[in-house]
Amino acid sequence: MNEALLEQYFANRVTADEAKQVLAWFDTEAGQSYLVRRLNNQFSNADWHAPPTIPAPDADQMLSTIRHRLAAASTEHRPVIRRINWLRQPMQWAAIFVGSLLLATAAFFGYRQLYPADLFQQTAFGKTTRFTLSDGSLVTLNGNSSLRYAPHWKSGQTREVWLNGEGFFQVTHKSNHERFIVHLPNKLNVEVLGTQFNVLARESRAKVVLNTGKIQLDVGNPRQNKLVMKPGDLIYTDVKTKEYYRKRVDAAAQSAWQTGKLKFEGTSLQEVAQMLKDTYGATVLIADPDLQRQTLSGTIPNQSMQTILNGLSTVFDLRITQQKNRIIIQRTNLSQHE
Where is the FecR protein domain (predicted)? Predict the structure, then answer.
């Protein structure tokens, strides 16, 4: 989960789709651990001023209390807004200091009662997973990625999923021509009928590559027409700079990661470093600006980060030093003398 998005959520500066994405992540083991850790950090903060006769709250106990109160409110069929009445209880003083964090926590459990059917798939750094949606569409998620989706869609209903990270989609065409929309965290949407394509959505940037079929990309600007893509098209967009470009590529090479290979076609070493950070959580240092711009073309295995590093070192004649998750890439002595 993107830390910047979490901070935006707690500051109440996210869209409805972004809020749903965060809330769905809170429903995972990692999300629950994050909430407990954040509560504990808040309670141990130097600015925390609990009454001297009352011990600082326990995060696990508080989350459990919230769950029980929300369950009781649901049983009594109270309106959703009543589900945070625990703020008026003796814990009110705690809410004053924890503020939006506890409100967000309560909102999360209320959300899970309103949207209990959402499913969530998430991959760890360096891991991939493949699964089938209820409409028969196949999804392969790359490392450090997640997808939220409904367990089923009714006939005539738009099929919508929410992606954060990188995924390859093989979308099933339906007889009623129901749309299939992939929502990205940077306010971009990919709309298809039946096709195969690769999507990379990290922070403010996104890259969409069409393998077969036809899709259109909504860049989130009402003044900009939707971009219609043909097989072999790559569209890269940067939400912050509001810039994008289109180029022709080998679409199969762009999605080769799901077959255990990485195929480079004039890929800069800086782009490779960014991929290692996104997919494996590594910190990559390339001090030489010229080396950062050096382009690579070739194929190497990607069963693990170590096999990628070995492949880069051997195939492209680089000196790579690794200290845990910190990687330094340099020219070899031979390259430096050329």
Answer: 123-215
**Tokens 């999804």 belong to residue:** 139
b (16+ CB within 10 A) / e for 84-101? bebeeeebeebbebbeeb
For residue 4, what pLDDT is reported? 81
Asked whether 29 and 157 are in contact (CB, 8 A), the reply is no
Q: Are 126 and 304 in contact (CB under 8 A)?
A: yes
Closest to 136 measured CA to CA, from 178, 191, 198: 178
Give the number of C-alpha atoms closer than 13 A to the C-alpha of residue 184, restricted to the C-beta side.
Answer: 27
Identify residue 108 by its one-letter amino acid code: F
Domains of the chain: 3-114 (no CATH), 119-251 (2.60.120.1440), 260-337 (3.55.50.30)
pLDDT in tens, 175-188: 888 899 999 887 78
Q: Judge whether residue 168 has pLDDT over 70.
A: yes
The CA angle 40-42-47, to the nearest 5 degrees, is 140
Residues with Cβ within 8 Å of 92's Cβ and at least 6 positions away in sequence, in order, are none
Which residues, in sequence order, are bridge partners of residue 167? Answer: 141, 199
Cα separation, 201 vs 164, in Å, equals 6
Query: Could you give the angle at which helices 29-43 and 59-75 cross, rounded to 10 degrees?
Result: 120
pTM value is: 0.63
